[in-house]
Amino acid sequence: MTIAVSGGNGFTGRFVCEELQRRQQSFVALLRPGSDSSWMQAHQIPIRFADLNNAVQLAEQLRGCRALLNVASIGFGAAPPIVEACQVAGVQRAVFVSTTAIFTKLNAGSKAVRQAAEAVIFRSGLDTTIVRPTMIYGTPRDRNMIRLVRWLDRYPLLPVFGNGRSLQQPVHVSDVAWALVQALESSDAIGRQFNLSGLEALSFNDVVRITAQTLDRRVHRFHIPAQPMVALLQLAERINIKLPIKSEQILRLNEDKSFSHLEAKKIFGYSPKSFEEGIRDEVSLFRVGGDGLSSC
To answer: Which domain holds residue 63?
Structure first.
């Protein structure tokens, strides 16, 4: 029997597919109807199409699978139909990707949706595991560190909203992919939840410093008081003025995002790489235009 991977065409999902291939596991990628399947076809990955919000359609495509690796976001209300589809199709084992963002102290709209999704998953009666990565990075295809890499590579000055001392703990995408597959195969992980963070917590200032050194760039930070900027942005948002940065982003930047991964290490041997190693990999790929995935 095979493993179904939802979200396999995304940034993290493709690394999960490669991890499964490396382990010679039988699996199938679940794609949204109309998705571009060229990467899957080039890597000889079997494909099935299903809308994750359509429990009937999804259940049909899950039949015959022994487990589900749900890499697709549960932050958009899809958890209930996914759980229902697993129950109908007889898929008892499932690993779901959530996020450490559920622990934010901010009143973010997505927080309540994700918390509700996790509650549905744990009440489902399935053999589930929830993994919560911190900020995922690792290649120019990420949506996080590559923005900082591009800025530092181009400009000698970096504006920082706040003092830059808030803690970050980015996690490399290859470590996340390894952990998802490892958790799936670990019976001790059933019924549990794990935070997946990078090796160590770093201040944002340290993240900038290490990234600039890796790029061999001299960059000067200039700090802008966060609260006045947040107030200004919130005013703009209330009167529907579109700006390239949102108040919530500044608030999140000044919130500690440090999470222990000791439970994942204890239960299934999770051992993430350091940020220095991970950002070196990303910068190398940035220089050559690669994506960190194997070519065919």
So the answer is: 2-138+170-199+257-288
Number of domains observed in the structure of the chain: 1
Q: Give the helix/strand (H/E) hosting 69.
A: strand 65-70
Query: How many whole angstroms from its chain centre is CA 132?
Result: 8
pLDDT 10s digit of each residue in the chain, 296 long? 799 999 999 999 999 999 999 999 999 999 999 999 999 999 999 999 999 999 999 999 999 999 999 999 998 888 999 999 999 999 999 999 999 999 988 876 678 889 999 999 999 999 999 999 999 999 999 999 999 999 999 999 999 999 999 999 999 999 999 999 999 999 999 999 999 999 999 999 999 999 999 999 999 999 999 999 999 999 999 999 988 889 989 999 999 999 999 999 999 999 999 999 999 999 999 999 888 887 66
In the block, tokens 């996790």 appear at: 118
Q: List, in order, residues 6 or more apart from 217 with CB less than 8 Å away.
A: 152, 153, 156
Residue 105 belongs to some domain of the structure: yes
